[in-house]
Amino acid sequence: MAVIESVRWSPDAAAVRIIDQTQLPDRFIERDLESLDDVCTAIATLAVRGAPAIGVAGAMGLVVSVLPHALDTRDRFDARMQSHAERIRATRPTAVNLSHALDRLLARARGTSGSPSDVIAAMRDEATLLLEEDRSMCRRIGEHGVTLIPDGATVLTHCNAGALATTGIGTALAPIYRSHELGRRVHVYVDETRPLLQGSRLTAWELTRAGIPCTVIADSAAAGFMRAGRIDLCFVGADRIAANGDVANKIGTYAIALAAQHHGIPFYVAAPSSTLDPAVPNGDVIPIERRSREELARLRDVRLTPDAAGVDNPAFDVTPAEMVTSIVTDRGVFSRPYRFRELDTTRARQARPRSSVFDPATP
């Protein structure tokens, strides 16, 4: 399988190189993010997207953003670094991986003595470690999740939780890639995933590139395909998982879970353990990003909705834990009842308000 590197250092390590996912599948374009503005805009406009990928890109981007300030005094540098981190953090409020990654870099920086140059070197090492850990994490999810996919299975996916959403082989797609490597027959039904079509644009691009058979269907067709017996199981990703197992994922996931529950079809969530947020008791307090009306009301330059009509464009919804058959992580497969508060983590965080409004046109 040809390797997809959605996020990596540029050859001179002075920029973050990404695949610009807004251009796929029409064009394969790589971009170098060389400044704070570049990093924030790329994350906000979904040029780089997927909870694990934006966590790594945000961490690497923080390093890039402070490179011009290596000659500052340490106090001035620390204040600027904190300000840059908060600006990057605000770009995507739902995906907890971004906050976790930034917090790790800030902690490494604070624990490093010496000049700003010394701090930057330590931050770069930590960001590179995050990149390597993410790749390994994806592989472990694939190893755990492949046990849930029998030979000849048809799998429904939603949004994109593959290599483009991570720095490895993905989360929800990792077990599918692993099945393919083992020579198992697997066919993937790909939800188009309105309004930005991450399924039809990105997941289908990945899978066809890897030689894995797939069929794109409209989001509204999924329940009918289940009723017709054409779906054996569902695999989706997650941007945040609450302590009780409630899952925040791309808008439309909840409807798939409802249909799967009605038809007795296994509904699996695959996500890195860093997506588990034990400080959030349930899905009601997960912040849900609301994006601009233009993403829903227009298709490129074509108006789809009258200007006088209101538009509400949440990027995510929450699937209750009781609808999730199992959650596959790099630590193993978890089944109900979920008790993620009991996991040994060091990232306890204060729960944020339920709703957050963000316009990607204003990075």
Task: Describe the overall structure.
This protein has 363 residues and is an alpha/beta fold. It folds into 2 domains: 7-140, Four Helix Bundle (Hemerythrin (Met), subunit A), CATH 1.20.120.420; 143-357, Rossmann fold (3-Layer(aba) Sandwich). It contains 10 helices and 18 strands. It has helices spanning 36-44, 51-66, 74-89, 96-110, 116-145, 174-181, 198-210, 222-227, 253-263, 294-297; strands at 7-9, 16-19, 30-33, 153-157, 186-191, 214-217, 233-236, 240-242, 247-250, 267-270, 276-277, 288-290, 298-299, 302-303, 316-319, 326-329, 332-335, 355-357. A 7-stranded mixed beta sheet has the order 6-5-4-7-10-16-17, sandwiched between helices. It has a 4-stranded mixed beta sheet with strand order 11-8-9-15, with helices on one face. It has a 3-stranded antiparallel beta sheet with strand order 1-2-3. A hairpin with a 2-residue loop joins strand 13 and strand 14. Helix 5 (116-145) packs across helix 6. The radius of gyration is 20 Å and the shape is globular. Mean pLDDT is 91; it is low at 344-363.
Write the layout of secondary structure elements.
Layout: E1 7-9, E2 16-19, E3 30-33, H1 36-44, H2 51-66, H3 74-89, H4 96-110, H5 116-145, E4 153-157, H6 174-181, E5 186-191, H7 198-210, E6 214-217, H8 222-227, E7 233-236, E8 240-242, E9 247-250, H9 253-263, E10 267-270, E11 276-277, E12 288-290, H10 294-297, E13 298-299, E14 302-303, E15 316-319, E16 326-329, E17 332-335, E18 355-357
Parallel strand pairs: 4-5, 4-7, 5-6, 7-10, 8-11, 10-16, 12-18
Antiparallel strand pairs: 1-2, 2-3, 8-9, 9-15, 13-14, 16-17
